[in-house]
Amino acid sequence: MYRQMVLIRRFEERAGQLYGMGQIGGFCHLYIGQEAVVVGMQAELKRGDSIITGYRDHGHMLACGIDARAVMAELTGRAAGISRGKGGSMHMFSVEHGFFGGHGIVAAQVPLGAGLGFAHKYKGDGHIAVTYFGDGAANQGQVYESFNMAELWKLPVIFVIENNQYAMGTSVNRASSEDQLYRRGESFRVPGMQVDGMDVLAVRGAARTAIDWVRAGNGPVLMEMKTYRYRGHSMSDPAKYRSREEVQAMREKSDPIEGLKKEIIDGGFADEAALKAIDREVRDEVAESADFALEAPEPALSELHTDVLLGTY
Amino acid sequence: MPQILLPAMSPTMEEGTLAKWLVAVGDVVKPGDVIAEIETDKATMELEADDGGTVAALLVAAGSEGVKVGTPIISITGEDEAPAPAPVAPPAAAPSPVAAITPEPTPAAIAPAVTAPAITAPEPASGPTRRQTVREALRDAMAEEMRGDGTVFVMGEEVAEYQGAYKVTQGLLEEFGPARVIDTPITEYGFAGLGTGAAMGGLKPVVEFMTFNFAMQAIDHIINSAAKTLYMSGGQMRCPIVFRGPNGAASRVAAQHSQNYGPWYASVPGLIVISPYDAADAKGLLKAAIRSPDPVVFLENELLYGQSFDVPEGEHVVPIGKARICRAGQHVTLVSYSIGVGVALQAAATLAAEGIEAEVIDLRTLRPLDRATVLASLKKTNRLVVVEEGWPTCSIASEIMAICMEDGFDDLDAPVLRVTNVDVPLPYAANLEKAALLKAEDVVAAARAVCYR
Ligand SMILES: Cc1ncc(C[n+]2csc(CCOP(=O)(O)OP(=O)(O)O)c2C)c(N)n1
Ligand SMILES: [Mg+2]
User: Which B residues, 239 through 258, put their C-beta within 8 Å of a C-beta on chain A?
Assistant: First the structure.
């Protein structure tokens, strides 16, 4: 888990740099600060379970075990990218890893995730779906339509609200009449949990409880993860809506990577040197993915017309 | 020694102003510390250090304007024992290993694939004008109408405290207060419906969609609730609302964020659909839209927001439903709207050098469409090409072609052609995006073809 969180952190920093160099275009939303959420959840999921999220998706992909090079090459828009350069930062998918995107429209992934759960139940394969969305997304109507159907039909779905306290420039309490988001499922009888999303072990523990409940056929669970994003909403956000002190205080007091590091060292599970070795390995992996993503060729122009439809008519 | 290059801080940024240094040589910085303030094309941004270290040199003076993206601005020596990864490319001017291993253009050369050329063709100015960006013109239109009519209010995501996701509503909160400039949750279906209800209740809402891509969440209210009310109530119930926001492709934002909804809305009876090109029309038509007693879909374009044009001083209202001839010519007619007008004007300039004088028509309003202006021009030139930043199928281009067949058949000396985006979802990769979008050279080729040249 330590390695995965560091990998996401370093990968995102590098993506930010490549954006600054003009090698990544369009919108690019970094996951820095929120690493514990997806890493803690993923630690308890099984291969074959389905994951879906929004546009802030790089971390989810890395946590699913997708090759950093294929993710980075998608960011630079190259043929070796996981969507062959056609999707970009916000639209990446890997059916092989049970990762169903990467969606650019806020909250669209919520009913889609319920549908993935529906498919698992229909097929009776024992798997579950996890759909991640933001505190801002939590105000979309389709979220509640999904809660209702998921509970009504006892779908194996976990709704994970990544409450990083802001939707672009709007803080939760400026947009939500009920700002305790874990309670948002109550009128649909969807049980809710509030979890410290900056603590990967807390996330993992909560994930186990929720997953057991859902896998046993009891219907959906709503998990609100209290987390924080250190960077702007996307690369072009001046972030004037919060103070530097607020961000620095989070980084210094609640950083998920530093937190786990301390647990590991204090608990005597590994020493500083061993963790440093992991850091170095990750740096190399990320550097290699960036080199790969810059060297890989652009897609062939003929790719423009492929993958629009499957059949020929 | 690692240097930090001026980063691109938005999809459209090519250069910036180094407003202020927040560190000095010798300072120790931690990861995440703000080291400088940079003014971009949209906002003032804070530049953070990724890695910690000691500031060795400031390479660009505070206050420097027009610093190109990719210019080294500061050197920081690393704090890490491990050799710091070289995250930054050398200056674009020097032979660059990054450039050597990839066919990509240097960062500074990356520009939006559809560049609307800054060719302006003002209507014969009848009074004093001033240079304004499309963004400022739109803001002024809203502010003027809000001053004149207390029932006009603005609602949408990030329109108030954030000053607009694309800064179009800048300053409105300050002048009109939170009762009239309202930040909504991200709930397009809900606030489009609420706005429509408020219009039915006698107010004049201006509902901003962060982009029209997100209005698809709300399209039921735009069409089923707003557009049909007057008709279904036998003329009793009005719905004077404006739905506005950026439409069409932006820069590298890929398939879900890059669609032109002009043809969608223009097919709906009961709606007015406006899609201006320059700042004067943006202002004059938005004012007209707010005053209209009918529901209006007002389609802007992000890539045009930062472009400057002459805007008449004082009260300036442009009539809805009237196209504009923005360049006169006798050999071929180019019909377009929104960002396509810039492309058509660029093509017209190329054609003029070859002795083909193109007449360029900016439709400005897509519904009701100004058939008369299009047909009069066709009568003069006998040849017509439609230029549209959007898909070809069931498009405004298709509609113009139908009009030419129905009412201009005898005037046609060549088939009408359309030049549009390629008929695929918009790809992300830079080369594919460029290939998919509307291009002036294709317009030139089509114009030559209909002139049999
Ligand atoms: C339907 C829709 N509306 C608006 C947007 C523009 N937008 C993209 S992200 C975002 C904020 C979402 O915030 P939140 O759900 O809290 O997620 P976070 O970005 O914090 O991860 C907005 C308004 C969009 N992509 N889709
Ligand atoms: Mg959020």
Answer: 250-257
